[in-house]
Amino acid sequence: MTAIETSALKPADRPRRRGVNLEKWGWIYMRASGVVLIVLIFGHLFMNLMVGDGVKAIDFGFVGGKWADPFWQWWDVLMLWLALIHGANGMRTIVNDYTSPGVVQKVLKGALFAAAAVLIILGTLVVFTFEPCPVGAPADLLPSFCAA
């Protein structure tokens, strides 16, 4: 009987790569952010749809009142950041799966990064700079709940 020699290295004998394993941390992020997003989204839906008058109460005044509280500002910003990064990371995985390494893959990943960054910046600015009753605005343009 003849033994067949194999040149494949056993996992313990393979040289280990140095540095941060970004794929592993991306995988961990997707699981952790998914769990946190479930809590944030269901809390958001419960407060907006079940508490008070439900969906018919959601209007400009409702959002203005909700975002007057820093707790809800941070709740919504955390939900925004986690959802956008989670989605962009998922799309990055799809780009990796369906394109070969090269220029196209780099362009697609760059576009994903740019879109996520712009949306995160704009969304964060909207939440923290939202002012339903701006000072100096004409009284006829202000919502009814603002003091003229």
TrEMBL record:
Name the InterPro entries on file.
SQR/QFR_C/D, SuccDH_FuR_B_TM-su
Q: What is this protein called?
A: Succinate dehydrogenase
> Pfam families recorded for this chain?
Sdh_cyt
- Origin organism is Agromyces fucosus
GO molecular function terms noted in the UniProt entry = metal ion binding
Transmembrane regions listed in the UniProt entry: 26-51, 71-89, 110-130
Q: Which GO terms describe its cellular component?
A: membrane
Q: Where in the cell is it found?
A: Membrane
Q: Which UniProt keywords are present, listed alphabetically?
A: Heme, Iron, Membrane, Metal-binding, Transmembrane, Transmembrane helix
